[in-house]
Amino acid sequence: MALFDLPLPELEKYRxxxxxxxxxxxxxxxxxxxxxxxxxxxxxTPTPTGLALVDTWDVTFTxxxxxxxxxxxSRPSGTAGRPLPAVVEYTGYGRGRGLPIERLLWxxxxxxxxxxxxxGQGGQYGxxxxxxxxxxxxxxxxxxxxxGITNPGTAYLRRLLTDAARAVDAxxxxxxxxxxxxxxxxxxxxxxxxxxxxxxxPAVSALLASSPLLCHVERNITITDAHPYAEVVQYLAVHRNxxxxxxxxxxxxxxxxxxxxxxxxxxxxxGLRDTICPPSxxxxxxxxxxxxDKTIDVYPFNHHEGGEAHHNAHQLAWLHxxxxx
Length: 325
Prior knowledge:
By secondary structure, this protein is α/β, with parallel strands linked by helices. 33% of the residues lie in helices and 19% in strands. Strand 8 (266-271), helix 10 and strand 9 form a beta-alpha-beta unit.
């Protein structure tokens, strides 16, 4: 893929005026208050994995609407009784939590690790998911972005982002977690969820978002045909009179609108040839962050894969510097 977005010098100062509803903060304060009426109810069950150096538990916590959300909690063996900093990780679009032996980077680095399942997803790739989305939807395009999307109150994304924020509370309640050191991490959809969680939950003390989805959505649906943004285009191609309602609803879930609420140190990443999560959206969110402690790694010749293991190495060093592990 050739370069298609703004030149890097323009990206570095790109901070557009985006659609932000006047009741954005009230909407999320109300949404989280409704979710908080349901106790987090973190249930933890030991899970044998065959791994000698990592202990794992099957976790259930209460997300949006009191619905149960699944997760894997893993930590280095032999660290019981010693509070560890935690990493809450969110998965990519279409992926579920999979098997507990799949994501071992963070526990291997000495962190308590909560890998959060994604409601309704898990059937596109990976090893599946275990969290249903019990809420119905009106007509939508195949996928998840347009489910209930004509009204922010009924949108699938409202439930998903609330789950992400609640997962931080669940991590803080887990055995032997240092609740003063909780990082949120994610790639693609997971990156967008991490930004939202950091903007919604003040317990987050570090944010790591790579090639994040849901950044400057209104621009992205005009510059890329890649999925999942193509779901919005497909929906509007059929529901021709719904454009205003859909764009208004999506603005309640746009990571650019959560970024100014984020004061935690942040490490972002983008590939300049990424058509799935275009770099202008990533920079729009990054440049809107309130924190002064922020870094973005740019991979000029990479698509959505970004820096892969090279970036993982930087993430480990960056978080070590801030959490002292």
